[in-house]
Amino acid sequence: MKAVAYYESLPIDAPNALVDLTLPDPTPGPHDLLVEVRAISVNPVDVKVRTGMPPADNQPRVLGWDAAGVVRAVGADVSLFRPGDAVWYAGALQRAGTNSELHVVDERIVGKMPATLGFAQAAALPLTAITAWELLFDRLQVPHADTPSGKTLLIVGAAGGVGSILVQLARQLTGLTVIGTASRPETAAWVRELGAHHVINHTQPLAAELRRIGVPEVDYVASLNQTEHHFEQIVEALKPQGRLALIDDPTQLDVRKLKAKSVSLHWEFMYTRSMFHTDDQIEQHHLLNRVAAMIDDGTLRSTMSEHFGAINAANLKRAHALIESNQARGKIVLEGF
């Protein structure tokens, strides 16, 4: 099968940062699906792994986790899918990635693809939808609601991949007032289009920006990037007994600054269930099916913003470079080999 991989951690502009190659077709295990990959998207985790985790013994490592495709074969114990099903998923960090024509994945972290989306539009969503859903409902424990609750959520980095679906989920499924941050006119417009009640500029002090829109403090903060840079302002902006959730990797945080307000700190990592084979890992299957239903009924929309063409090393290098620039809006997708 065709695939794109890396042999060593190199700058993305190096000729061999990512390479096209041919690998043996994978074989599904008992709970696995063998999926013919039709489209993928690229996430910051792809960049983090490529730059920080060189493969052992100079063996090729295939990146990529988001995928939309068609089930070609199933393992002996599979019960949720059959060949021919269109599926979407975000894979497992400890297994080979989706930048390949064929991919194996545990059925318990796979959902049925939305019927109203093409493969490229669908591939934009699984990893970020899982992350946003778990952050909002499992970590921050925001209740589902159809009416305004009087509570507020600040999303730092709302124009990125996770932010783009988190804004939608919070607006559609909770009673929260949703405040997103963005620093450029085009990203601010994107966040408003996705449903944020307010947009503020994260290049300015967050607490001052909140006061400017008449919000002295917030109940919840979802910090999606540069948490270390914004931490002091986040602490100031949070109400006493507020909740803070983050997904990035700050080198250090003085969490003692949360004590006076009794603020709780929550970390979201969507690979936890698949990495540790938790008893509830099938919740990601149910979650993806629910998101697919919301896509099909028009409640949610795809966050695809860039289509970079076929799945090959040259186009993936372009995608990695855009993510490394911190200028990406929504999700970058590639389709077909």
Q: Which superfamily, in CATH terms, is the homologous superfamily of the largest domain? A: Medium-chain alcohol dehydrogenases, catalytic domain
Please outline the major beta sheet.
7 strands, mixed
Assign a percent range to the helix content. 25-40%
Question: Uncertain regions: pLDDT < 50 for 5+ in a row?
Answer: none
Task: Give the mean pLDDT.
Answer: 96
CA-based shape: globular
Rg is 20 Å
Total helical elements:
10
By CATH, the architecture of the largest domain is named Alpha-Beta Complex
Domain unit count: 2
* Count of extended strands: 16
Structural class: alpha/beta
CATH class of the largest domain reads: Alpha Beta
How far from one another are the termini?
Answer: 10 Å
CATH topology of the largest domain: Quinone Oxidoreductase, Chain A, domain 1
Task: Tell me the strand percentage band.
Answer: 15-25%
Order of helices and strands: EEEHEEEEEHHEHEHEHEHEEHHEHE
